[in-house]
Amino acid sequence: MSSEEIMSVISFDNLLKLGFAVIDARYCQYEVSKDKYKFVVIRIEGDRETFYLDMLKKYIPDFKTEKNIYEIWSNILAHKISMSKVLNRDISIKVALFDYLETK
Fold it and tell me: Domain range spanning residue 7?
């Protein structure tokens, strides 16, 4: 399954409704799981409606979009997985975000 297919399975909106959010995807070997990709999920208490937009604004304060924020976040995580795969190491979400915005 490609990283894009994996990301399309995750329902960011439903997770938010349950009080959770995917904030990262890891690419490396862990003893606890043989799965290649690991998703970092946190419990959120604050404003669920703007959670992902607020996350992006932490890195780019003037970030604005007219696109679906879940699609953008999904694409950034998929891009992170792709970059990590090419480099054969985990990269930061910040690096993936800037590279995604620069190259897409």
Answer: 3-103
C-beta of residue 36 within 8 angstroms of C-beta of residue 90? no
Please give the structure tokens belonging to residue 36.
């290649």
C-alpha distance from residue 54 to each of 9, 23, 24, 48, 86 (Å): 23, 12, 15, 10, 29
Distance CA 20, CA 18 (A): 6
Among 75, 76, 9, 13, residue whose Cα is nearest residue 50: 13
Contact 24, 40 (CB under 8 A): yes
**How many domains in the chain?**
1
Q: Using one digit for the tens of pLDDT, what is the confidence trace for 43-92? A: 988 788 889 899 899 999 998 887 788 888 989 998 998 898 899 888 99
